[in-house]
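ARCHIVE CARD
CATEGORY: sequence design from structure
SOURCE FIELD: tokenized fold
FIELD CONTENT:
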């Protein structure tokens, strides 16, 4: 090696952030191993590298039983310059890889919960690999949106779940099915969320199908539902587009849990909510023709409302509550009971926050108008609020 090699090491240190001393130490250790493979080499040796000239010298060593050096002599092989050049190339490449891994880990460490944008490099039934520009992210099958097809080359957003340091380099695990993914998407579209004027209090999500969020305003002059929906639904539409059409309902968080449960069941209209705070159960009375709508397809609407409120919900029609027969559309007490069983399930961890108390709100999916209050709100609040 020569002086130009040492100048290149200085350049690497400035451009790549790899300390010159680190490379030289690693190179010296690699050269010791190379020396020991040469014919007639001493069992122990050390290598020195002049940091000004790049000159390499090998010293053979003799040690006593305690490992102390009792004799040392120079034993640099004649062709060691060629061996040193080859070894130096390998060491530098390895150190550059290590430095890049360390830089990537430092860039993403502590960023759990942040939103990133990447390009799909690989997608199969097991995993999706995203190119983040300076790193790769892994999206396991369980963190994908159900039935979503991510084509190679597509640009998508994802939530960082975990950043791990592994032998092969840092592993960045991301998700598109996590409830907080919805939170971050809204923060991109709604400045009031970032400013703290409004906040998302709870999220219940059935990834790929439907999401319900509860929002609250910290400013009496700001409508939290309207702020999240945007002019003619422009803000919520951007979120829905990123979710590939997943429906999003937005309800307002208030202190009366009865009204909150009524609004969480939107777009269905609720007549009355009867609470049992000891068992965390709620009996919801709806008009006969609204029973199927309140329950939702396969119990989805009721199940998400239960997750959002933290209450087990039993939905009944007015006729059922009065002890009558099923209504004309075929809804029955058996259907209601089956839905109640489904709504009582805790789900797959889709509750981002369980409210202590809540209140009225309005649905705000891309096809629903915000600000619609439940029919007969007075009836929904006939019983006193919990703790009143």
């Amino acid at each position: 090696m020569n002086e130009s090699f040492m100048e290149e090491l200085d350049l690497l240190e400035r451009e790549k952030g790899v300390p010159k001393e680190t490379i030289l130490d690693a190179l010296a250790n690699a050269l010791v191993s190379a020396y020991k493979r040469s014919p007639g080499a001493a069992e122990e040796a050390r290598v020195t590298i002049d940091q000004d000239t790049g000159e390499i010298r090998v010293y053979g060593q003799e040690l006593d039983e305690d490992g102390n050096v009792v004799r040392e002599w120079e034993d640099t092989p004649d062709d060691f310059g060629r061996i040193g050049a080859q070894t130096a190339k390998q060491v530098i490449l390895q150190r550059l890889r290590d430095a890049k891994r360390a830089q990537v880990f430092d860039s993403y460490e502590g960023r759990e919960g942040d939103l990133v944008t990447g390009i799909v490099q690989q997608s199969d039934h097991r995993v999706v690999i995203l190119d983040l520009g300076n790193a790769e992210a892994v999206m396991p099958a369980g963190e994908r949106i159900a039935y979503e097809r991510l084509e190679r080359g597509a640009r998508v957003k994802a939530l960082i779940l975990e950043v791990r340091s592994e032998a092969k380099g840092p592993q960045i695990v991301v998700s598109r099915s996590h409830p907080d993914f919805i939170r971050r998407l809204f923060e991109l579209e709604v400045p009031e969320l970032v400013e703290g004027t409004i906040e998302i209090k709870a999220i219940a999500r059935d990834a790929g199908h439907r999401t319900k969020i509860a929002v609250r305003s910290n400013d009496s002059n700001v409508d939290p539902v309207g702020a999240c929906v945007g002019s003619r639904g422009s803000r919520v539409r951007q979120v829905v587009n990123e979710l590939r059409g997943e429906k999003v309902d937005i309800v307002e968080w208030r202190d009366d849990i009865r009204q909150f449960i009524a609004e969480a069941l939107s777009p269905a209209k609720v007549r009355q909510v009867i609470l049992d705070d000891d068992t965390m159960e709620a009996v919801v009375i709806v008009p006969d023709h609204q029973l199927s709508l309140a329950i939702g397809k396969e119990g989805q609407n009721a199940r998400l409302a239960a997750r959002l409120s933290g209450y087990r919900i039993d939905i009944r029609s007015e006729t059922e509550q009065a002890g009558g027969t099923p209504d004309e559309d075929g809804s029955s007490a058996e259907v209601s009971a089956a839905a109640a069983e489904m709504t009582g399930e805790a789900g797959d961890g889709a509750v981002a926050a369980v409210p202590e108390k809540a209140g009225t709100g309005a649905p705000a999916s891309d096809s629903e108008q915000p600000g619609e209050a439940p029919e007969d709100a007075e009836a929904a609040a006939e019983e006193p609020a919990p703790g009143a």
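CARD ANNOTATION: The CA atoms of residues 28 and 337 lie 75 Å apart. The chain has three domains: 3-108, 115-175, 179-380.
SHELF: design records, drawer C
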